[in-house]
Design goal:
Elements (H helix, E strand, L loop, with lengths): L1 H12 L8 E4 L1 H10 L4 H18 L7 H12 L12 E7 L4 E5 L5 H11 L10 E3 L2 E4 L46 H22 L23 H6 L2 H13 L11 H39 L6 H22 L1
Parallel strand pairs: 1-2
Antiparallel strand pairs: 2-3, 2-5, 4-5
Pfam family, one: Patatin
Protein name: PNPLA domain-containing protein
Keywords: Hydrolase, Lipid degradation, Lipid metabolism, Membrane, Transmembrane, Transmembrane helix
Length: about 325
């Protein structure tokens, strides 16, 4: 979500919002409403970093309280007294479960109606609560049926997404774990994500030669940020706890931190060592089973319990397997 706020900060700096209309769903609707209502994006980022991220990471319930964070952010920062600025300029998209259709709203009766429409657009169950009734029908996240809405009249649209794998005009120029939208990373990574959105937004406007972008110097702090990751697994997962677990496993296997660096080859060596350990355990398990089976059958034969031809053949087969397994294990 903060990536989108960073992009909108860049668009406002170049006054793109003064000559455009907007359409958005989920996090997109939050950012464009904030843009048109002149919200302070730096203040929003501070709230996310200092209030919502710690709350979401404090307990297992935290990630499932995103609706509370959303309502608080809109109430504190959206400047809903300027709701008249949205009419005809901002379209919010949500999904009607009752009709199984997309709904688009560009006129808002009052601040409460605006807030309910935004919550409907962001209602990604279960993280942002369960579907609820709005305008006489059950509603849910707009991304369910229209994840990247465009204007129906063919107007050229600048598409923006926080998903690095999606096709859009403005998207993260660096890898961003897609599950960060479900469970936030550390405060430092959230700060970086906001800065990355700002830089990507400016960079796109400069490349396209938008009016006002002449001579704009694009910062590179977020683009060159490395995050001090020590492992590929930690960087891909995007969570320090995952990286700590990888390093702990490496320590149990007597591998140094230098061995588990940001290298796919070294990571592969670690995985193959784990496979080798599992394979060795399976090998000795089959050896033990073959020997026990052969000894049991031989004991029954010596005791005269089974002396049939079929039983002797089975005994011979198990003895052969036991000898071969012992030979493989010892040599």
């Amino acid at each position: 979500m903060v990536y989108m706020y960073g992009v909108c900060k860049a668009l406002r700096q170049l006054k793109v919002d003064e000559r455009a209309k907007f359409i958005g769903t989920s996090a997109g609707c939050l950012s464009v409403v904030s843009l048109v209502l002149d919200s302070d994006f730096d203040a929003i980022c501070d709230s996310v970093v200092h209030d919502y991220v710690p709350a979401a990471r404090a307990s297992w319930r935290g990630p499932f309280q995103m609706r509370d964070y959303l309502v608080d952010a809109v109430t504190r920062h959206a400047n809903v007294d300027n709701i008249h600025k949205l009419h005809g300029k901002v379209t919010i998209v949500y999904t009607s479960l009752s009709a199984w259709a997309t709904r688009r709203v560009s006129r808002f009766k009052n601040p409460v109606h605006l807030l309910q429409t935004m919550v409907a657009s962001c209602c990604a169950t279960p993280l942002v609560g369960l579907p609820f009734q709005h305008e006489g029908e059950y509603v849910v996240d707009g991304g369910l049926l229209d994840n990247q809405p465009l204007f129906e009249d063919g107007v050229r649209t600048i598409t923006v997404t926080p998903n690095v794998f999606a096709a859009a005009d403005i998207r993260p120029s660096r890898y961003v774990p897609p599950w960060w939208s479900m469970y936030p990373p550390t405060q430092r990574e959230m700060r970086w994500l906001f800065a990355l959105g700002y830089e990507d937004g400016l960079a796109w406007c400069v490349r396209r030669g938008l009016p006002g972008a002449e001579g704009v110097e694009v910062p590179t702090e977020a683009a060159t940020y490395r995050g001090e990751w020590k492992t590929v697994v930690g960087q891909v997962a995007g969570y320090r706890s995952v990286e700590d677990a990888v390093l702990a496993v490496a320590g149990l296997l007597l591998l140094s931190e230098e061995t588990v660096t940001s290298s796919v080859i070294r990571l592969e060596i670690l995985l193959w060592r784990l496979v080798a350990v599992v394979a060795a355990l399976l090998q000795w398990t089959t050896v033990l089973w073959a020997v026990l089976a052969a000894v049991t059958l031989m004991g029954l034969t010596l005791l005269g319990q089974h002396c049939t031809l079929e039983f002797v053949v089975v005994l011979g087969a198990h003895l052969t397997v036991a000898v071969l397994k012992l030979k493989e294990a010892c040599w």
